[in-house]
Specification:
The complex is a heterodimer. By secondary structure, chain A is an all-alpha fold. Chain A is built from 12 helices and no strands. Chain B is globular. The two termini of chain B are about 30 Å apart.
Chain lengths: ~260, ~270
């Protein structure tokens, strides 16, 4: 069986993903006072707190610090939230997977889309607040859209890989959380990468999450089209590697997951 | 799994050389004394004890033709539900296992699963309709939702969070949905539990009508009376094989005399 079809067309599965995404959003904010506001409130507050600490208290010396922080922190929140929420997706949804003919990736993609809505909503709001006029005029929108596609694809396949591994190795969820905590400190999203000594620069160069975040920084902070193309190409190479790994693992393990979840 | 919809053959389902095996882990509670003895006698077992590989079904061959209502009997753990899940396409088949289906299969295995417990019965119904009928248009699905809402008789409780539903209320929703239109192969796996006496009469009548209109039916139940009432053919699973294939009356008699065991197979 290929990765996509279970005799239903991709279009029908996508329609199901949208319905699931809508229901996930509804379910999450039902009975909350602020409702859909929480979608943007959480990343906006995180951004505001980090901005206050690093810019005003620790006096980090970076030009256009708010744009720098925005282009790093909001995509970062998207990646880690999605990875944390989907790590145990197959195990948590065991009863649904055992009762209905469903492609398991539907759970991952709907969660990914749910978080992508948060990313776009909070990013747009903060951009308006920081007053980047080029975006308002639409000059950066195509590049922003490309960066969103790249980060969404990469996070989806990475989440799928982690959720699949978690079925067979239940330590995965804890290992992922542990690694994300470490990676947070070696990812230059709230301080400039020049602060890291030369001998440790490889930690930044080979940091997969930073590779996915860099296109955002090249558009919104540096605004260099050539750099954006270079960073996007690197992201694309990374996505290809993750996708190949994910499909390889899926092909090997797809027959065993149902007896292990 | 191979599926075609163009065949004019009378055969709805064909299963050839089908086997199921899986790993079974054991988490046996040990006293400190037992653990100490194991640690001394075979220390590697503590860290690297491999799971048992269990063969659940071995080389099953089966054909189901149009008009057949096949009841599956077998003791707990004999592989009835797993077999049905493979047919329904829930589990992925290995290349060596061949299941050929001429048409669309719908199966119901669990009437208690809550997809979004916080959402209302109506909102969960929308998702469930998507799960069960992905091949239908939005309008057709909406018609099914309306029909289900009316038939399940939940009244204003259709807008209550699904997490507050009783077992019977969930069963009402699921059974009303699955029985709303006939399919080529319908699988019902021990689904007549939970609903109250009066709704059970109502839903049994409707499911029987759906069964009559469907191409073929696989019906798993531990109720011999229901099997005899609904089915026109019975197969029995025991010791990884189909040990009986015949009429319901003979099948039930055979089951009672040949499957009298209280322990789980392989235990």
């Amino acid at each position: 069986m290929p990765f996509f079809t279970r005799n239903e067309s991709l279009a029908k599965n996508i329609s199901l993903v949208f319905t699931m995404t809508k229901s996930t959003l509804k379910s999450r904010y039902r009975k909350t006072f602020a409702g859909f506001l929480w979608v943007i409130l959480n990343p906006v507050v995180t951004f505001a707190v980090q901005a206050l600490i690093f810019k005003n208290i620790l006096k980090v010396n970076v030009d256009n610090y708010y744009l720098f922080l925005l282009s790093g922190v909001i995509p970062w929140i998207f990646i880690i939230t999605t990875l944390n929420m989907t790590a145990s997706a197959f195990v948590v949804n065991r009863s649904v997977l055992m009762a209905f003919k469903l492609d398991p990736w539907i759970f991952i993609l709907s969660q990914c889309l749910d978080n992508l809505i948060t990313l776009v909503a909070s990013f747009s709001l903060l951009l308006l607040l920081t007053g980047d006029i080029n975006v308002i005029l639409g000059l950066k929108i195509p590049m922003f859209f490309m960066s969103l596609c790249l980060i969404a694809f990469a996070t989806f396949f990475l989440s799928f890989l982690i959720a699949l591994t978690h079925v067979f190795l239940r330590d995965t969820q804890f290992i992922v959380q542990f690694l994300l905590n470490i990676i947070y400190f070696i990812t230059p999203i709230f301080y400039p990468k020049e602060l890291i000594p030369n001998k440790y620069q490889w930690l930044v160069s080979y940091n997969p999450l930073f590779i996915l975040i860099k296109p955002f920084q090249s558009i919104f902070w540096i605004y260099d089209v050539k750099l954006f193309i270079k960073d996007s190409s690197n992201s694309l190479i990374l996505i290809s590697l993750i996708t190949i790994l994910c499909l390889y693992f899926w092909r090997r393990k797809k027959n065993d997951i149902y007896f292990n979840i | 799994m191979t599926s075609t919809s163009t065949s004019k053959s009378n055969i709805i389902l064909e299963v050839n050389h089908f086997s199921i095996s899986y790993n079974v882990p054991y988490y046996k509670t040990q006293s400190f004394r037992d653990w100490f003895v194991t640690a001394l006698s075979s220390p590697l077992d503590i860290f690297f004890k491999s799971d048992d590989r269990v063969l659940l079904l071995d080389n099953i061959n089966l054909q189901i033709k149009k008009g057949e209502r096949v009841g599956i009997l077998g003791n707990n753990g004999s592989g009835k539900t797993s077999f049905c899940r493979y047919i329904a396409g829930i589990h992925n088949c290995r290349k060596s296992n061949k299941i050929i289906i001429n048409g669309i299969v719908k199966g119901i295995f669990d009437t208690e699963v809550a997809i979004f417990p916080e959402l209302s019965g109506r909102e969960n119904l929308e998702i469930l309709t998507h799960f069960f009928y992905p091949e239908l248009s939005v309008k057709e699905r909406n018609d099914i939702i309306l029909d289900t809402e009316t038939f399940c008789d939940l009244g204003k409780y259709i807008d209550v969070p699904f997490k507050l539903y009783s077992k019977g209320m969930k069963a009402r929703l699921f059974l009303s949905l699955i029985s709303s239109r006939p399919v080529d192969l319908l699988i019902l796996d021990e689904v007549f539990n939970g609903a109250d006496y009066f709704f059970n009469e109502k839903i049994t009548k409707r499911i029987k009508e759906t069964i009559q209109k469907s191409g073929a039916v696989i019906f798993v139940s531990h109720s011999n009376e229901l099997i005899e009432e609904v089915c026109n053919r019975v197969i029995i699973f025991k010791n990884k094989k189909i040990i009986f294939d015949g009429s319901p009356k003979d099948g039930i008699a055979y089951y009672k005399t040949h499957c009298d065991q209280t322990s789980i197979q392989g235990a």
